[in-house]
Design brief:
The protein is built from three helices and no strands. It is an all-alpha fold and 82 residues long. The chain has two domains: 44 residues, no CATH class; 38 residues. The longest helix has 35 residues.
């Protein structure tokens, strides 16, 4: 008797082979190609690219805050010398 796991694996393989020979496989390939083209036209970015840009923005904002503090301190020193 065939083990249940082996039977399921054989069944899955047979179904995959059957589906590969039907129009369903062509439809799937065409849909993937259509979706790829659509996403390419949308100019999307990956999550990794987004995270990198968010990190760069956070560091830039910290730098701006630091520079604003320094400018404010220099303005106060300048006002005292006048």
């Amino acid at each position: 008797m065939i083990a249940p796991n082996q039977w399921f694996e054989d069944f899955q393989k047979n179904m995959s082979d059957l589906l590969a020979k039907t129009p369903a496989a062509d439809i799937e390939r065409n849909m993937k190609a259509l979706m790829t083209q659509t996403f390419a036209r949308m100019d999307l970015i990956t999550r990794e690219e987004f995270d990198v840009q968010a990190d760069l923005l956070a560091r830039a904002l910290e730098r701006v805050d630091s520079l604003e503090t320094r400018v404010h301190a220099l303005e106060q020193q300048f006002d005292k010398t006048e």
